Amino acid sequence: MSGDGTAEPSTVESQVTAVASTLETDDDERRVTATGGPIVTAAVTEELTAPSLRASETVAVILSLLIVVFRTTGSSASLGTVTLAPILCAVI
């Protein structure tokens, strides 16, 4: 199977995987694995972006928690944001 080289790797990956699943049989007589540059690129991109999205969610939760804690203890809520700055520097 060949492509024109201008399609997005995720698009190529989904199309090739669909073709591969069509060619496979249920009785293990024929197993098909989609490979190639765009397939590998899509897999690597997915593996690299998933943890960074999770880290962003974690930082947002920590920021919210710090704001609530500083606000309930009588301090300024903006102090929670200031407290998060060194954590962001350590993560980045």
What would a concise description of this structure say?
The chain is built from three helices and no strands. By secondary structure, the protein is an all-alpha fold. It has one domain (9-91).
What does this molecule look like?
- By secondary structure, the protein is mainly alpha-helical.
- The protein has one domain.
- It is 71% helix and 0% strand.
- The chain has 3 helices and no strands.
- Helix 1 (9-23) crosses helix 2 (37-72) and helix 2 (37-72) packs antiparallel against helix 3.
- The longest helix has 36 residues, at 37-72.
- It is elongated and about 70 Å long.
- The mean pLDDT is 78.
- It comes from Natrinema halophilum.
- This is MMPL family transporter.
- Residues 8-23 have a biased composition (Polar residues).
- Residues 1-30 are annotated as: Disordered.
Order of helices and strands: HHH
Instruction: Please tell me how large the radius of gyration is.
Output: 23 Å
Strand content: under 5%
Overall shape = elongated
Distance between the termini: 41 Å
Total number of domains: 1
Q: Got a strand count?
A: 0
Mean pLDDT, as a whole number? 78
Structural class: mainly alpha
Tell me about the biggest sheet? none
Uncertain stretches:
none
Number of helices: 3
Work out the helicity level.
over 70%
